[in-house]
Amino acid sequence: MSLIDKFIKNNITEPYILVCESKSQMLYSKDLMDKLQIENDLIPTPKGFGGVCTTAIKFDKKDISKVEEIVESNNIEYEGIFSLKDKYKYDLSQIYNLNITDNFKEIIKKVEANIDLEKKDILYLLKTEKEEYKALIKMADIIRKECVGDRIEIRAAVEFSNYCKKNCNYCGIRRKNKTHRYRMSEEEILKEVDKLYKIGIKTVILQSGEDPYYDTEKILSIVKKIKERYRLGITLSIGIRDENEYKLFSEAGVNNYLLKIETASRKLFEQIHPDDDFNKRVKHTKLIKEAGIRAGSGGMIGLPNQTLEDIAEDILFQRDYGIHMIGFGPFLPAKGTPYENYKPGDLNLTLKVVAISRIVCQHVFLPATTAIASLNPDAQAMALQAGANTIMLISTPPHLRENYEIYSNKNMVNLDFAIKSVKDAKRKLPKYLNYDYLKKLGYEIDESLIN
């Protein structure tokens, strides 16, 4: 049995969920369940049982009396215990009227009945063309609207170091690549965060290569100052860390942790990561969740030697590991890497993956990635129309941005570009942005776009 199978195969045959009032209550409940050897898993709370990007504890019906005893005897603050048979039902009736095959109709029936799609279903959707492709995008859009509405989440990344100890074959900041290396000081990072705070951004992404220079103490200092000064949501994207570090980050207020699997195929993973460990990456995905941090993952579409079967497994990995934020973008070659001469990933296939991820994983955040915007400037809007609901701005200081090139010809997505993508996709900008301040900076804001 593979490591992935070991983690996701369990005896939960009739799933129930416990939805707690807070992260601390959820972690306390899970700890008590673990001590009593009640099989459980952390999953994104399904639509209808709680907010998007919150976490529920999944367990089997046979243990319901034990779970009820846990919450009552320990005064757990919780919203409820629910059967997943009662999951939110999506009305996809309008899709049946489109020009689709019986196979596609059977997939729709499964989605409507809350029956998990199998690999063969995902493979069918990955191969859709013409009218069925339109039906796929429409189905994803319906589910997106029901789950997260029309408002697009705007987040911002500060790429604070391009040093990396790893030598991934596709990455422009790999250890062996010749590039101008930089590290931002804590003061420089906080200066950029201050700018984001002033324009109303609610979540900052602190991203770097796997750089040991930023030890636990340095990361915690930055996190705590951001929380104290600005009370922003924080996503870390800094590679694999020790299990205890995830717990310390969680206690300090880190909300999300992005650790992309890139591919769920062990064979392909080892080809693109010559000095990384597949089992370790899978294990740490689970450790992040168990520390009480929402897990972000995703992958690249169009990697050398990648098959549709591999891509189907990538999508299933996101669902089976309960990933909250799923970023799929096209493979884009980077100069100076072993993969620099391979062709980029296909836009149409990437959009299919975004759509299928929304259909399969539903109540999660799906970014319209910077990579897809780099492949085609109109593609970010297309991804929003295919089920995505998040845009990440590049907020690295301008004089450093070109040195953080994971792939070449990166689209430095700024607020102007994001606003255009939202408008083109006929979506809405979030109310939380400071529009009065943005107007003073010279931004022209269409009031009808704000929700």
Automatic annotation (TrEMBL):
Any one of the GO BP annotations: water-soluble vitamin biosynthetic process
PROSITE patterns: RADICAL_SAM
Cofactor: [2Fe-2S] cluster; [4Fe-4S] cluster
Domain named Radical SAM core: residues: 150-369
Keywords: 4Fe-4S, Iron, Iron-sulfur, Metal-binding, S-adenosyl-L-methionine
Stored SUPFAM superfamilies: Radical SAM enzymes
Record-given protein name: [FeFe] hydrogenase H-cluster radical SAM maturase HydE
Organism the protein comes from: Thermohalobacter berrensis
